[in-house]
What we know:
The protein is α+β, with helices and mostly antiparallel strands. The chain has helices spanning 15-42, 49-52, 56-59, 75-80; strands at residues 91-99, 104-111, 116-124, 128-135, 144-152, 154-160, 165-172, 179-188. It folds into 2 domains: 15-80, no CATH class; 91-188, Jelly Rolls, CATH 2.60.120.680.
Amino acid sequence: xxxxxxxxxxxxxxxxxxxxxxxxxxxxxxxxxxxxxxxxxxxxxxxxxxxxxxxxxxxxxxxxxxxxxxxxxxxxxxxxxxxxxxxxxxxxxxxxxxxxxxxxxxxxxxxxxxxxxxxxxxxxxxxxxxxxxxxxxxxxxxxxxxxxxxxxxxxxxxxxxxxxxxxxxxxxxxxxxxxxxxxxxxxxxxxxxxx
Length: 195
């Protein structure tokens, strides 16, 4: 048996570098625990970073299905959950908008965060440019565009309101003949109107 003092220590880290590496790993581990794991798993966010990164939604009771998924903080959780619940009744609306050459028009719906609908629209007689957007109450001329398109004859999809306000479409006929936009939407929202 060899004496410990006779072992070749060449190439092995020193005790000082082992302690330094262990301390660095400990600091990184604690940082990850506080900034990501606690917010994501338990909705505990002592630094506020987890909320900014959207991690607190994952650990909230709503994402586990114990509360309504229509709360603003649960938009991501609603997308992860196979069940989305609403206190609003399911509805379906259909309308049409006739646009002369160079004319534009809007169709809107008042919605709360988490309200959602499935939509389908098509253009009879040509194509349109469109802007699907929303604005919070009393926003003046400020709005958020979700989807902008040019020379489109149809669009289909689903939409979930990220904030309270009015959400919908602006269509514009840039052609030389009248067109008719036919819209059908179904879901959980407060009806449609033309501003």
